[in-house]
């Protein structure tokens, strides 16, 4: 479990990129008041999703505009085909806490 930051430091629409203590960078989003965490690197090529555009619970990649559902990690449009790995997020003891998932994403590649 990794302490990310205090909830008030991650307001709706914002993202924090976690690199310490994780096997690969993780992006933690506040999407309309709910916290979600996914691998930060797009599954299409090498782009940071923390630099993308958050629209509701979808994150659009800044490089070629693939979009991913933060709830499942699934891409919702090409060019990305592989899902992102998702990670559990909790709030406890006054902090957002990241529980890193190890292993492959649950969902198969799309299209
Ligand atoms: S790098 Fe993300 S869509 Fe191409």
Describe what this molecule looks like in 3D.
With 111 residues, the chain is mainly beta. It has a single domain (2-99), classed as Rieske Iron-sulfur Protein (3-layer Sandwich). 0% of the residues lie in helices and 40% in strands. The chain is built from no helices and ten strands. The strands form two sheets. It has a six-stranded antiparallel sheet, with no helix packed on it. Strands 5-6-7-8 form a four-stranded antiparallel sheet, with no helix packed on it. β7 and β8 form a beta hairpin. It is globular and about 40 Å long. It binds FE2/S2 (inorganic) cluster.
List keywords for this structure.
mainly beta, four-stranded antiparallel sheet, 0% helix, globular, binds FE2/S2 (inorganic) cluster
Compact description:
The chain has 111 residues and is mainly beta. It has one domain (2-99): Rieske [2Fe-2S] iron-sulphur domain (Rieske Iron-sulfur Protein, 3-layer Sandwich), CATH 2.102.10.
